[in-house]
Specification:
Shape: globular
Largest sheet: 10 strands, mixed
Bound molecules: threonylcarbamoyladenylate, magnesium ion
Strand order of the largest sheet: 7-1-2-6-3-5-4-8-9-10
Number of strands: 14
Number of helices: 10
Order of helices and strands: HEEHEHHEHEHEHEEEHEEEEHEH
Structural class: alpha/beta
């Protein structure tokens, strides 16, 4: 993207417009976080319920320290993982309007590790509230084309930075207390966080309620019905009417298939997840297939974040 394009995008943000931009995780749909009317535009464009709070994106860790206070374990995580796919839940400063945080007394903040995002944030000179740039409940976008397809006509500027690196969203961590609590599994693995700051709690919706408001069971749904192959694949005779999302190799007989990583690399698999689901979704629609059968990944590292997304996609069909 030429610098003039970025300057125009930054000016659009400053004047209250909506800009879709790449980050290292997925594309975001940004608005000036200090401008409640601009932020309302995000909810309108996404058809997002107003109870689901947004992440505020900043150009550097120093901006976070200026915006709010970082308790000790938050500061340790920020020092270790920013810029990067880590979102910290912090005390909400007064100048962040309630629409950003859905009225919570906390604000989610992150410093993206992407040259285009960083340059845009620097030029805009304001904190940028941005959810993933998709309609509410749909797949997260990992290319500018996904954004165009999903939010056509709803966005003032789409900054194209090519496919995103991680392909799953940031890990959301509440680090206000001594022991950090992971509210949403994401691109930064629990193992990496624990190696840096010791044991963390991974919040499960034990009472059936999601840990973060955005972690609704039905999130991340493709249009086609998706079923997890937890107990193995359907018999070969049933595969001809189905598409398969496989980890290493697509078993024979499926009408369509995507293998996330033939050599079993979880990082590659995560990066390809949403792209592959978008393609299988299209194939299912175009060819009138019954749905998608998805293999769970090994429950470790980025496999946990991918399995979390797949379980939600499957739950959406229930
Ligand atoms: O990688 C990402 O995080 C992407 C890119 C664009 O940065 N953004 C993203 O935003 O995934 P979104 O809106 O799709 O998800 C934000 C998550 C939701 O689960 C939301 O509930 C949670 O962060 N969240 C936001 N503010 C929160 C808060 N104050 N307390 C707890 N959870 C919060
Ligand atoms: Mg989202």
């Amino acid at each position: 993207m030429p610098a003039t394009g970025l300057e125009e995008a930054a000016a659009t943000l400053r004047s209250g417009g909506l800009v879709a931009f790449p980050t290292e995780t997925v594309y975001g749909l940004g608005a000036n976080a200090l401008d409640a009317t601009a932020v309302a535009g995000i909810f309108r464009a996404k058809r997002r319920p107003s109870f689901d709070p947004l992440i505020v994106h900043l150009a550097g860790a120093a901006d976070a320290a200026r915006l709010t206070s970082l308790p000790p374990s938050a500061a340790a995580l920020a020092a270790r993982f920013w810029p990067g796919p880590l979102t910290l839940v912090l005390p909400r400063p007064r100048d962040i309007p309630g629409i950003v945080t859905s009225g919570l007394d906390t604000v989610a903040v992150r410093v993206p590790d992407h040259v285009v995002a960083r340059e845009l944030l620097l030029r805009a000179g304001v904190p940028v509230a941005a959810p993933s740039a998709n309609r509410f409940g749909r797949l997260s976008p990992t290319t500018a084309d996904h954004v165009r397809t999903d939010l056509d006509g709803e966005v003032d500027v789409i900054v194209d930075g090519g496919p995103t690196r991680w392909g799953v969203e940031s890990t959301v961590v509440d680090a206000r207390g001594d022991r950090p609590v992971v509210l949403r599994l994401g691109a930064l693995t629990v193992e990496d966080i624990e190696a840096a700051v010791g044991a963390v709690e991974v919040r499960r919706g034990s009472d059936g309620r999601p840990a973060t408001p955005g972690a609704l069971p039905s999130h991340y749904a493709p249009g086609a019905p998706l079923r997890l192959a937890t107990a193995g694949h359907p018999p070969p005779a049933d595969r001809g009417t189905r598409a398969c999302l496989a980890f290493r190799t697509v078993p024979p007989g499926y009408a369509a298939g995507e293998a996330l990583s033939p050599d079993g690399n979880l990082v590659t698999a995560a990066a390809r997840l949403f792209e592959a689901l978008h393609r299988l979704d299209a194939a299912t629609r175009e060819r009138g297939l019954v749905g998608i059968v998805a293999e769970p990944l090994p429950e470790e590292g980025l496999g946990r974040a991918v399995n979390d997304r797949l379980r939600r996609a499957a739950a959406a069909q229930d």
